[in-house]
Design brief:
The complex is a heterodimer of chains A (about 350) and B (about 625).
Chain A (H helix, E strand, L loop, with lengths): L26 H15 L6 E5 L14 E4 L5 H11 L4 E7 H7 L1 H10 L4 E6 L34 H7 L4 E6 L3 H13 L4 E6 L11 H4 L4 H4 E3 L7 E2 L5 E6 L2 E6 L20 H7 L8 E8 L5 H15 L5 H5 L4 E4 L1
Parallel strand pairs in A: 1-2, 1-3, 3-4, 4-6, 5-6, 7-11
Antiparallel strand pairs in A: 5-11, 8-9, 9-10
Helix pairs in contact in A: 1-6, 2-10, 3-4, 5-9
Chain B lengths: L7 E3 L1 E9 L4 H14 L3 E7 L14 E9 L10 E6 L2 H7 L3 E10 L5 H6 L16 E5 L1 H8 L7 H5 L2 H12 L5 H11 L3 H21 L6 E3 L7 E7 H15 L4 E5 L6 H8 L6 E5 L3 H14 L2 E6 L1 H17 L3 E7 L16 H6 L9 E2 L6 H16 L2 E7 H5 L1 E5 L48 E3 L14 H16 L10 E2 L4 E8 L3 H13 L4 E6 L1 E3 L5 H5 L2 E8 L4 H10 L4 E4 L8 H12 L1
Parallel strand pairs in B: 1-8, 2-5, 5-6, 6-7, 10-11, 10-12, 12-13, 13-15, 14-15, 19-20, 19-22, 22-23
Antiparallel strand pairs in B: 2-4, 3-4, 9-16, 14-21, 18-20
Helix pairs in contact in B: 1-6, 4-8, 6-8, 7-8, 9-10, 9-14, 11-12, 17-20
The chains are: A alpha/beta (about 350), B alpha/beta (about 625).
Chain lengths: ~350, ~625
Amino acid sequence: MSIDLPVLKPADFGSDQDVRWCPGCGDYSILAQMKKTLAKIGDPRENTVFISGIGCSSRFPYYMNTYGLHSIHGRAPAFATGLKVCRPDLKVWVITGDGDALSIGGNHLMHAIRRNVDINIILFNNRIYGLTKGQYSPTSETGKITKSSPVGSIDNPLTPLSLAMGCGASFVARSIDVNIKHLGQTLLRASAHKGTSFVEVYQNCNIFNDGVWKYATDRESKTDNLIELEHGKPLIFGKDRDKGIRLNSMTPEVVELGKGISEDDLLFHDEKSTEPSLAFLLSRLRQPEFPEAIGVFRDIAMPVYDEGVNQQVDQAQEANPDSTLDELFNSGTCWDVE
Amino acid sequence: MSTTTTPEKITGATIRFAGDSGDGMQLSGTQLTNTSALAGNDVATFPDFPAEIRAPRGTRAGVSGFQVQIAAEDIFTPGDQLDTLVVMNPAALVTNIGDLKTGGTLIVNEDSFQAKDLRLAKLDENPLDGVGLDEYRVIKIKMTLLTRTAVEELGLSAKIADRCKNFFAMGFVYWLYNRDLQPTLDFIQSKFGGMPDIAEANEKSLKAGFNYGETTEAAISTYQVGQATLPKGRYRNIMGNQALAIGCIAAAKLSDRDLFLGSYPITPASDILHELSKHKEHGVRTFQAEDEIAAICSVIGAAFAGHMGITASSGPGIALKGEAMGLGMILELPMLIINVQRGGPSTGLPTKTEQSDLYQAMYGRNGESPLPVVAPQSPSDCFATAIDAWRIAVTFMCPVIILSDGYIANGAEPWKIPTFDSLEKIEITHPAPREDDDPEFLPYSRDENLARPWALPGTKGLEHRIGGLEKAAETGDVSYDPDNHQAMCELRQEKVDRIADFIPPLEVCGPEKGDLLVLSWGGTYGACRTAVTRAQSAGTSVAHAQLRFLNPFPSNLEEVLNNYDKVLIPELNLGQLKALIQAKYLVECIGLNKVKGRPFAIVEIEQRIAELTR
C-alpha cells in the first residue's frame, strides 16, 4: 500500500504576509533556513506551531504558514509550555531575541530549560534592541555606545549558552545567520532532539548594530575566530587548521599544533557528556581572547516535562478507570436530608 | 451518651475556638462543623488566622480562630456575636472577647494564664481576675493539666501530650452542645491511625473533655440545636475553593475537554491548585508555574491548544497577570481567571477577606479591554459559578474573571450535591479541516454572539497566526488601519455587552417596589440576605438583590434600581460597585463600606437598613 503524500517545499511554509524586517536584516536568512528545515522534516504544516514574544525576531510566526502565536514580551516559553503540555503531538518552536529571552523573559527561559519541555527555542542574538530603535541589550558588550548609554554601557554582557547550561539544558547549540548550511543543520538537530533545544543564532542588525558579528562572518577572519564543534573531534581552528584549544588544568588555552603539541593533546568535544562542565567551558570562549565555538555543544537525553505531566495523568486514569464525577461530588462525608 | 440535665432547645449557636496558631483551632472548628452538619444542622464557618505560619507563641499576632454557626434553620453567615467562645490563652481572650454576647459562655484554659503567658500577650493584669468578665458565664478549666492526666498512661512527652488539649476543648464543647463524638473519633482513626499513640491520646483527650463537662458542670444547662429543614437531598460540607475546583472539573467534563490549571501559589487561592492537582484521573493537568505571569501565559497556550485553561490567584498575582489578560482578551480565546480576593493594596492582608479588586477586574488592563466578571455568593455557590463562567467563556470566546474572596474561599457550608447528569451540557464546536480549494478560513469571522471560531492547531487547512497586535476584522491579519482599530475595539466591547442578554435577569427578594433596595455582590450575600429578611419580618419595606454578574450587569438592573426610593450597596471596599452603578445608571446609591479584613456582621447591615428606612 502506498499513499502519495504531497511533498512540502520550503515555499509552502511561507505565509501570505509581507515580511516587514529591514532590508538586509539577518532574520531573512534564518526565516529561509527555517522553511527549508521544515520541508526537510516533512511534518504537515498544521502540526507545527511557532510562538514568539516581542521584538523584531518575534514577528517570525506571522511569516510562517503554520499555526502561530505572537505573544507578549519575554513570555513565549510559558505559552509554549502550556501548549505542549496539553498537546504533545504538536511541534513547538519558540522564536525570541536577546532582549526578549534574556532580559524581560529571563525567568521563563530558565524554567522552560530546567523543566526540559519538548520545545525548540531559537534565540536571535543581535546584541541590541532593534524594535525600540537601538538601546543596549543584555548581550551588548561593556562600553557599548547606544541611545540609552551615550557614554558607554557599564553592564556586563550575558553569554546565553552559559545561562542555558547553568539551567541544565539538554540541548545547546550556536550558529550564525549567514552560515546558512551550518544553520540549517543546527535547526535540524534541534528539531530532532527530545526536550528543550536551545539554539543561539548570531544575527546581524544592519540598522542599529551592523557588523557586530563581523569577526565571525568575514571570509578573512572567521576561520581564526570560530571553532566548529564536532562530536568526538579535537578542537582545531585557524585558516590552516594549525591551532587548537588545550586544557591547562581547568583553564583553556590556545596552542599551535606542531612544536611538540599534537592533536591528542587538545580538548576533544563530547556533546553527549552528562557532565556539563566542558560544554560550559566552551560557552565561555569569547573573542578576542579565544575563538568562539559554533555547532552543538550538548545533546543528551533527559526526562521530558510534558511527557511526565501526561504520564501522571495516564497513570491516574489507568489506576481509576471507572472514576466518575458523581464519585468526586460525593467524596468525603455526606448525609441525606429526607 | 447522656447528660444529667435536660438540654435547652435552641435554634442555633455561634461558637468560636481561639488560640495560638499551633493550638489546632482550625481542626477543632472543622470537626465541630462536620459533626453538626451530620447532625442535620445548617452550618456556616469563618476561619480567621494570621498570615504567619507560626507567629511568636502566645502573642496577640499569633492568635488563630475558627468560628462556626450551627443552626436549626437556614442560615447564610457564620454568625455575628458569639454564644460560646473557647480561648486557649490570654492573647486569644483579649483579641476575641469583644465578639462574645453579654451572657455568653466563655471557656478558658486556665493553665495558660501564668505570668509568662500574660507577658507574651502584653497584659499587666490577669484578665481572669477582677470584674472584667462578670457579664459572661465563665468556665475556667485546667485544660493542660487535665489533658496531661488523661493521657498519662501512654507515657508521652509533655510536649506531645499538650498538643492534645484542643481535643479536650472540643470534647467539652461537644458536651455543652450535645454533639455526637463518633464522627470525630472516626476522624481521629483515619487521620492518626498510623500513629496509634497519638490517635489514642487524642481520643482520650476528647472523651476527657466531654466527661469533664458531664461530671463537673452538671449544674449548668447544655444546648440542643435541632435539625434544619434543608431541601431534600444528599449533602456534604464544602469550602469555597474546593467548590470552585470541583466546579471547574465539572465544567470541563460538561464541555468534553481536559482541564489545564496554570497557577502560582498565593494565599488564599492556593487550595484550588492543591485540590485540582489531586484529580488527575479526571484528565486534570496542573502546572505550578515559575510566576504569576507564566501561569496565565501557560493557560493561554492551553486555550490555544483547545483545553479548558484556568488560572487562580489573588489581587497581587492578578496585577502581574494584567498584560496577559489583555492578550487573552484580544486573542479571543476562552479561559477562566479566578481572583480569590484578599485585603489589599499591595501585599495587604493576605489571610483576610476584602472585595477591593472589583476595579482591578473591570479596569486593570491597558487599552480598551473589557472582560466579563462573575462573583459567587457563598462557598457552595462556587460550584455553579465555575460552570456559568465557563459557559460564557466558550459561548462568547473570551476570558472570564471569577471574583471570589477569602471569606468564601475558606468558609464552608452544606452543599446539596447534584448528579452529574442533571447538569446542563456545554456545547463547543471547532471548525473542521479544510482542503486547499475550500473557501478561505477566517479566524476572526463572527457568529451570532460575535464569537470567533476556535480553530485548533493540528487541524489541516486552518493554519493561522494570532497575536497581541491589532488585527483586521475577519482575516486576523495585523492591521494598523485607524477605522479597523475603532471597529475592533467597539466590537470586542459589544461582544461583552451582549452577554447581558445571555445571563438571567436580576432577581429581587422582597417587594418589587419599596423604600429601600439592598444590592450586594460576592461574599456579602449572606449578611445582606439575613439582614433584609429580618427587616422584612419587622415590617420594613426593603428588598435584597444579589449581583452575580458584574460585567456586564443584568439587562434589568436599571429598572430594578428605579423601583426603590433608596439603594444601599454594602461592600468590603470603599465603594467600588457603587461607583460603577452610579456611573452607568446615574442613580444615586448609598454605600456601606468596610475594609477591616473581616466580613460584615448582619447587625451592621440591619442598623443601616433601620437608619435608612426610619
